[in-house]
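Table S2 (text version). Query chain:
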Amino acid sequence: QVQLVESGGGLVQPGGSLRLSCAASGFPFSRSAMRWYRQAPGQERHLVAEISRGGLVTEYANSVNGRFTISRDNNRDMVYLQMNSLSPEDTAVYFCHAFIWNTDYWGQGTQVTVSS
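Corresponding structure-token output:
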């Protein structure tokens, strides 16, 4: 079955960096665009970044553009989110997402907390 497993979250000070990872399995990874979403407490889930199947095309939410970088390794079925210059507004649960066979698949999420 399809599995998306995020890791790499944690507590970081403002201005710091984190790298999130998502391990994918159960589907043809290289044929699927991949996305990172985030959900802050009491808010809806929002798209943060997206990467095309081959990794050549990326898109970002305005709020993270220039600070976050999405990447993927199709040999390892992994997608990453490098987050720099973090601020408290980036505090949220971050989710890996794939849309496969007309179905949305989500990981369990990883908590990112930015606080001094």
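Notes on Table S2: The chain has a mean pLDDT of 97. The longest strand covers residues 92-100.
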